[in-house]
């Protein structure tokens, strides 16, 4: 018997105030409905208007790393990713740590 692996995804929502919300889930339809109902603090006050971007990840740790990476980006870089301009560059660029070097 094969164990079914969950398909993890990172997503970006456009919110009513124009902001971008980045998250991760293994069920994008369920999670979007939760955001519409205001299940997270941010989307309670800034409800989502539409789903702009999804990206498949191999596993939960990979999705979490990617979510953190995208959240650290400025808005312009997120919009470039959404439009497709950032896909090739991001496929080869490493995750950069924010730790300060001594």
Notes on the structure:
With 102 residues, the chain is of the alpha+beta class. It has a single domain (8-91), classed as GIY-YIG endonuclease (3-Layer(aba) Sandwich). 40% of the residues lie in helices and 24% in strands. It contains five helices and three strands. It has helices spanning 28-36, 41-45, 60-71, 75-83, 87-92, and strands at 8-15, 20-25, 48-57. The protein has a three-stranded antiparallel sheet, with helices on both faces. A hairpin with a 4-residue loop joins strand 1 (8-15) and strand 2 (20-25). The N and C termini lie far apart (51 Å).
Corresponding CATH superfamily: GIY-YIG endonuclease
Strand content: 15-25%
Unreliable residue stretches:
88-102
Supply the number of structural domains: 1
Please state the average pLDDT score: 84
Biggest sheet statistics: 3 strands, antiparallel
CATH T-level fold name:
GIY-YIG endonuclease
Determine Rg (CA atoms, Å): 15 Å
Number of strands: 3
**Major sheet strand order:** 2-1-3
| Euclidean distance between termini CA atoms | 51 Å
Structural class: alpha+beta
What is the CATH architecture assignment? 3-Layer(aba) Sandwich
Q: How many helices?
A: 5
User: What general form does the structure show?
Assistant: globular
Q: What order do the helices and strands follow?
A: EEHHEHHH
Helix content: 40-55%
By CATH reckoning, the class would read: Alpha Beta
């Amino acid at each position: 018997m094969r164990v079914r692996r969950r398909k993890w995804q990172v997503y970006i929502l456009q919110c009513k105030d124009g902001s971008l919300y980045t998250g991760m889930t293994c069920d994008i339809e369920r999670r979007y409905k939760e955001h519409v109902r205001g299940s997270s603090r941010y989307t309670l006050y800034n409800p989502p208007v539409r789903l702009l971007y999804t990206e498949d990840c191999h596993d939960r740790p990979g999705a979490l790393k990617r979510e953190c990476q995208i959240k650290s980006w400025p808005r312009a870089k997120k919009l470039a990713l959404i439009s497709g301009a950032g896909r090739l560059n991001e496929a080869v660029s490493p995750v950069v740590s924010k730790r300060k070097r001594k």
